[in-house]
Design a protein that fits this description.
mainly alpha, elongated, 2 helices
């Protein structure tokens, strides 16, 4: 029975640590831009093609 209490306390401690890390990342602005990453994949190929063209021209 004491193992259950130990695991319960440990799981609550881990949850608190993850919550603090999440709040820290939110305050630092990690999740501010939600739009750009969703459209970035549409333009990556064009940037790679432009770089390859510049390298072949030089």
């Amino acid at each position: 029975m004491s193992v259950i209490y130990l695991l319960l306390a440990l799981s609550i401690l881990v949850a608190i640590v993850f919550f603090i890390a999440f709040m820290y990342s939110v305050k630092k602005g990690q999740y501010d831009d939600a739009y750009t990453p969703s459209i970035r994949m549409l333009f990556d190929d064009e940037l790679v093609k432009e770089k390859q063209e510049k390298l072949t021209k030089d």
